Amino acid sequence: RVFNIFCLYGNVMRVKLLASKEGAAMVQMADKQQADNALTLLNNVVLDGSEVAVTYSKHPYIAESRVVMAEAGDSQSDDTPICKDYSQSPMNRFTRQGAANYKHIYK
Predict the structure, then answer these.
(1) How far apart are the first and last CA of the chain?
(2) What is the DSSP secondary-structure string of 5-74?
(3) Cβ 67 vs Cβ 76: under 8 Å
């Protein structure tokens, strides 16, 4: 669901669900403009009854690493990856430079 929300505002490169904080995730966008769009347009928006808080991370990117699986006993103990790479995903809408897709961003 995190990818589906953020991909409306730019290309999502990676999503990492934070095991230390339930309901929190890190999202790496393709560039600063796309990150700015997501931050500006999604911060403090109410989705499914909860307010979304979007801020910049102190980390410049989500490091490439092996896929980390949730530990047994976690709410995601079904071996769902907590880090996923979307850099080659055909679901990213803004893949061509200069594409007119940016004018269709809901503001």
Answers:
(1) 20
(2) HHTTSS-EEEEEE-TTSTT-EEEEESSHHHHHHHHHHHTT-EETTEE------SSSSPPP-PPPBPPTTS
(3) no
Pick from 29, 13, 31: nearest CA to 85: 13
The span from the CA of 57 to the CA of 27, in Å, is 9
Contact 41, 47 (CB under 8 A): no
Instruction: State the burial class of residue 101 (Cβ atoms within 10 Å of its Cβ: 0-12, 13-18, 19+).
Output: middle
Task: State how far the Cα of 104 lies from the Cα of 41, in Å rounded to an integer.
Answer: 13
The whole model's pTM is what?
Answer: 0.73
Contact predicate 30/10, CB 8 Å: yes
pLDDT digits (tens, 9 = 90+) for 30-67: 999 999 999 999 999 998 898 999 999 998 888 865 55
